[in-house]
Amino acid sequence: MKSEKVYVITGATGGMGMAITEKFKDKGRLLLADVSLDRLREVSRGLAATGMDVEIMECDVTNKIHIQRLVERTKELGNFTGLIHTAGISPQMGTPEQIMKVNLIGTELMLNAFIEIAEKDTVVVCIASMSGHMAPKEEDIDNLLDHATASQFLEKVVNVTKEDCTLAYRLSKRGVLRLVERSVKEWGKKGARILSISPGLINTPQGRKAMDEDPNVLNNMIGINPLGRIGEAGEIASLIEFLFSNQAAYITGTDVRIDGGVTPILQGK
Questions:
Q1: What is the pLDDT of residue 1?
Q2: Which class would CATH give 5-258?
Q3: What is the pTM of this model?
Q4: Is 11 helix (H, G, I), strand (E, B) or coil?
């Protein structure tokens, strides 16, 4: 049996994914997954130039066949130690239906597949968002979000969101928060932990895209931020490193906000 620790990072070519890859480069075998094989190859070449060897694999997180291939490759490489699921799209990157498919359905499909190979001390961290804490909290909507892989889910949830991509994004991330909480018992039976983190506005290509499309976003977010700045991808990576450590061994089934304190301000607290 192979004993090498294997960490799977989805959305690996994004700003957060790259920062996490750098942070975890000496911890075990890294399997980088992304929807774009071309970008993965480019990233892999860049890492190889620095002496870093990684495994890459194309994976559309809404595609069950892609996900199962990723699971099988993980098993071939060694012991499944961690999944860091950063794959997702912002309100600027798709329709409400696409946002739900990638952010919520994709996350549920990933968790359903990877729990089969979970081991004692496996850790999963899903990237949610502070936006998930700003979503409407209504019983009917929550019940809908809790059944994201059910038939007619997309039709029903798009009817709720209409053409509002921001609302769709918020609801998709609320769905992720609830999914992690619901999953804690099942992962715990394997001796594994599962968490989500909720970043605020982060200095990544995706975050900068939001700022470029609406310059007021940056000024407004800094203006209300108690720390007076936006976050950095390295800070996300450092939090995840801590959550994987023995110091966090009793933390599971919960969300950790990393937003500079913006969420309670926006909630009027």
A1: 44
A2: alpha beta
A3: 0.95
A4: coil
